[in-house]
Amino acid sequence: MKRQLINIVLFRVFLISFLWSQFALAHEGHEHAPVSIKSALEIGVKTAKNYAASSSPFAVGKLPASWASLTDADVSIYENGRGYYVVAVNNVQEAKTLYLKILLDGAIAGANYTGNFAASSSVSSISASSGG
After folding, report:
1. Residue 56: inside a domain, yes or no?
2. How far apart are CA 71 and CA 49, in angstroms?
């Protein structure tokens, strides 16, 4: 009887642990699919706004406050490369265009005002042939 009770308790603990682990792996914001063009454009605007609030890790540094008021209409795809997008974020008020290299996993691999990124710079770990 006691052994049977222990087996039931252990089974329930195992079952709860197994079910809970499924929720831990399936959390929001954890995507495995490559970034789409639409998502790349959204990331571009959001990144420019973030760089207006705090300094970027790239040579462009902190952007003037006018970059924080940009909309989706101010961004376009400049280049659709293998494993990445280069997004152009145009700020008419500053008369500048910020170019962001966005990998297919959503990471920002570079930012500059020329749109030219070294061929040796980062390439996404997500295969370009898997979509995007």
Report:
1. yes
2. 10
